[in-house]
Design a protein that fits this description.
The chain has twelve helices and seven strands. It is of the alpha/beta class. The termini are far apart. InterPro entries: NAD(P)-bd_dom_sf (IPR036291), SDR_fam (IPR002347), Sec_Metab_Biosynth_Oxidored (IPR052228). Keywords: Oxidoreductase.
Length: 325
């Protein structure tokens, strides 16, 4: 386990990259995304921050807090229904019009639901889109800015081997499982279990494909542990009450939200520096809540042998072409 003190010490080194680091937080108006944005603003010098979400009122309150935390920060809200890929494209264009680099991209959008397949107007399941397709679309769109950040000379001036460019998808590294290869979008085989396994496994495989092609960028898939966030907001009051009771009972085993934010900033900025393993090998970092490696290598190793990663990434690009062209 990486101690919280070590995490905070590593995060404090963020200042070595100098002023003007750019962070994009998808799902940044609540939960883990918001907590990670707070940690980023706390440690960075004059950071530029984009919070991507739905709730403008909530975002305004967070922005006020962040600018109090670091008066030199510049924080903007980009309203976006992340469950629609065309809206994701619009949000990315808003960022690209203003920034030529993105140093940190944190993806934590998601829903906790007991519904069956909930198809969007674009023909994808809402949960699978939030947990996988939309996140990959943000990465694909912002690759030029991430590449620019990874080769930016300020990182070299600060004594770093390269500039800071990192992508973190907050989901469930280690929870990889079998894929239904003939139905990756789960149009015919949808269940909540299949949706979870597909989102998790396709994330790890796609990040590996991206890491192979983009060695200047660190790609991280995390398992955050049990964290009390706002994901219960879409449930009815009775279900919310029961879930809150369970969370109260499980409190000794939960990760405090503030600590989770610190650890996810560490995942973005500290893990790639702390671990030589995987550096330049074309592999993403699969990380548990405590900073230790995590991943179902039995599943991933088999899929590497069978070259399933390229199949998943081609499917993802085909979905993008169909919807976004």
């Amino acid at each position: 386990m990486v101690s919280l003190d070590a995490v905070k010490q590593s995060n404090a080194d963020l200042k070595d990259y100098g002023p003007g680091l750019v962070g994009v937080f998808v799902g940044g108006t609540s939960g883990i995304g918001e907590a990670t944005a707070r940690s980023f603003v706390k440690y960075a010098i004059a950071p530029i921050v984009y919070l991507i979400g739905r709730n403008e009122t909530q975002a305004a309150e967070i922005i006020e807090d962040l600018q109090t935390l670091n008066p030199e920060s510049r924080v903007s809200f980009v309203q976006c229904d992340v469950s629609l890929l065309r809206r994701v494209d619009e949000a990315c264009r808003t960022i690209q019009e203003k920034e030529d680099k993105v140093n940190v991209l944190v993806l934590s959008s998601g829903i906790f639901t007991t519904k069956g397949r909930d198809e969007t107007s674009e023909g994808l399941d809402k949960k699978l889109t939030l947990h996988y397709y939309a996140r990959m679309r943000f990465i694909s769109n912002l690759l030029p800015q991430l590449i620019s950040a990874g080769t930016w000379l300020n990182g070299l001036v600060a004594g770093k081997s390269r500039g800071l460019a990192s992508v973190v998808s907050v989901l469930e590294a280690g929870g990889e499982g079998p894929l239904i290869l003939e139905d990756l979008a789960l149009k015919e085989n949808y269940s909540l279990k299949n949706c979870a396994k597909h989102a998790i496994t396709m994330t790890s495989l796609s990040l590996e494909e991206l890491a192979k092609a983009n060695p200047a960028i660190s790609f991280v898939h995390t398992y955050p542990g049990v964290v009390r966030t706002g994901l219960l907001r879409d449930f009815n009051p009775v279900t919310q009450f029961l879930m809150n009771v369970l969370l109260f009972i499980a409190k000794p085993w939960t990760v405090p939200l503030e600590d989770c934010g610190e650890r996810h900033l560490f995942a973005a900025t500290g893990v790639p520096r702390a671990r030589a393993i995987g550096e330049g090998s074309g592999r993403p970092y699969l990380v548990s809540w405590d900073g230790e490696p995590r991943g179902n290598q039995n599943v991933l190793g088999l899929y590497r042998e069978k070259k399933i990663g390229p199949v998943v990434w081609k499917h993802t690009q085909d979905v993008f072409r169909r919807i976004c062209s």
